[in-house]
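Shape is hard to put into words, and the shape of a protein is harder than most. The fold becomes a row of whole numbers, each drawn from a learned catalogue of backbone shapes. The outcome of that step, for a single protein, is printed below.
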Amino acid sequence: MAIHRHALRRCHPQRGFTLIELLIAITLMAIMAGMSWRGLDGLMRTRNATQTHVDQIAVVQTVLAQWQADLDAMQPVPTLNDAGVAWDGQTLRLTRRASTWRADGSDAGLWVVAWTRRDNPQAGTNQGLWMRWQSPALQSRNSLQQAWAQAERWGQNPSSEDQAFETTLMPLNLWQISYFRGNAWSNPLSSGDNAATGSGGAAANGGALPNTNTSPTPPDAIRLLLELPAQTGLRGRLSLDWVRPNFSNTKT
């Protein structure tokens, strides 16, 4: 019986992996791990690029929503700006109802709001930033007049005091404003065919800024044309029309 068990052990020897087999297995595992990491790295890069693009689009949407909200709440002030809005080729100013209320629940008054494009030398030629300026809530005519003048000064040569009320919105190459009146789109600065372009400096009329539009009636619609750089995620031109809420086009 003992001889038989010894024979069985000799017929079924136990063997492990050789050194060469272990090296081959480790090499294959290393290759597979490297390929998996490259795939994972590619997925992470794609996810980050997609998230960056989504964030850029969200910024543009938020800024345009603010533009729309400012125009929707526009409130003309007699003897100050009967149209509620003024455009000088570089800065658009308007008076609008404040969206906040006082602690006692009473109306906070009006804001003076201004939009302009400012050159950004750090970004290169023709690169700029879209800026927004907003005054505190105001109720007296004298304070509104002061804020109105301050907004104009801010758009041309802002002081440190003026810049305390500004917000940098997003990169912007240029912007263009058109008014819709009399069933036609026109330059808000003149009756000519040249568009009024705000490029951070002089308007597109040869250098000097034209007089601020002081039409006594609000425009029926305002067209905003933007030329966006690649940093916004929407490189190219973007057009947005705002229509006065109580406007009714009777043209047939």
Observations:
- The chain has one domain: 51-243.
- Confidence is low (pLDDT under 50) at residues 191-195, 200-213.
- Residues 51-243 form one domain.
- DSSP finds four helices and ten strands in the chain.
